[in-house]
Amino acid sequence: MAKTILKDLRMTTESRSYIDAMHAVLTHAGWTSCSKAMLAGMTVTGFRFAVHRHLTAESPTAYNWVAENFLAADFMGVTASSSAGFAFHPTFPLYRQEAVAEIKASLDRGIGAVFWKDCFAVAAGYDDEEGILYYDDGSGHGLQRLPYGEFGQNRSPYWYYQILEDTVELDPIEIYKESLMQAIYKWETHDRMLPEADYACGSKAYDAIKQALHGGAFDPVQAGEVFECYAAAKRDVGEYIGVLASLWPQLEPAAQAYRKTAQAFREVLGLIAEDPSMKRQARNLVRLFDEAQRAEQEAIGLIKSFMHERIRNRFDHVGLR
After folding, report:
1. 16 and 139 share a domain?
2. Which of 167, 182, 197 is the last residue of a domain?
3. Domain residues for 10?
4. Does residue 156 contact residue 286 with C-beta atoms inside 8 Å?
5. Cα 236 from Cα 258, distance rounded (Å)
6. pLDDT digits over 52-99, tens only?
7. With contact defined as beta carbons under 8 Å apart, do 133 and 22 qualify?
8. Do residues 142 and 24 both lie within one domain?
9. Last residue of a domain, one of 114, 149, 167
10. What is the pLDDT of residues 7-43, one digit of tens each?
């Protein structure tokens, strides 16, 4: 019976996003030395901004994981494969068996795997004799045990895993420029997977947040989780654009605008700490989200000006990959 545990593969949770898991795997494998903020920008993950109109907690993870997480790796020059589905399908036991086998094969190569266990987590080992995977979900509890037969059994019926396979050398400058193109696309375009009656994306996400705060049609605990996740994302984006501004000084005003956005989100979290119900602070919260929206819109406008030639070359296909 085989057993493998990858030494020092651990995950820390900050944005509670795919980036937390991806960063853990890539750094452990020695495939990147960049910070989470740089990874969030280069993979475009940090620019994704979508909310359910009732500010439900799943908002930051409401996207097509297979497609978008594949692209996140692809933007970095990392080849990847993944699979996903629903645990209630009659064929799920076969998929579960294959998923466990592929994760084990990746671990045998010394590479962790990303999978969903009520949040994005990393598989760091396995033990055939006990029939378990060892994983870290960033909760601070260290390696946890998941029996093979319980893989894919989540609070929601959805299962997912991704294997990061190898790396291809890419020009960092081209990665940075493409991320700016995608930032524009994410800000201006609704995610076609999400019904507009229920979700808002990019700039319109701010409008949905303000409307929900005005109307009170949301659960404050879930909304707080959403704002905490996006506060981390805005902080990461501000840091990322700041690094790019060291290469292209024309982007410094955009970096400043993103830092204003991140500051507004930090103040949002401060107000929520004072008033968890968000009722007494609703007006101030709306004001802060107004400020964040204006600052982010300014940042995107500056990026569009900087990237005008590439945008013009793509015509109406700014989001073309």
Report:
1. yes
2. 167
3. 3-33+78-167
4. no
5. 9
6. 999 999 999 999 999 999 999 999 999 999 999 999 999 999 999 999
7. no
8. yes
9. 167
10. 999 999 887 789 999 999 999 999 999 999 999 999 9
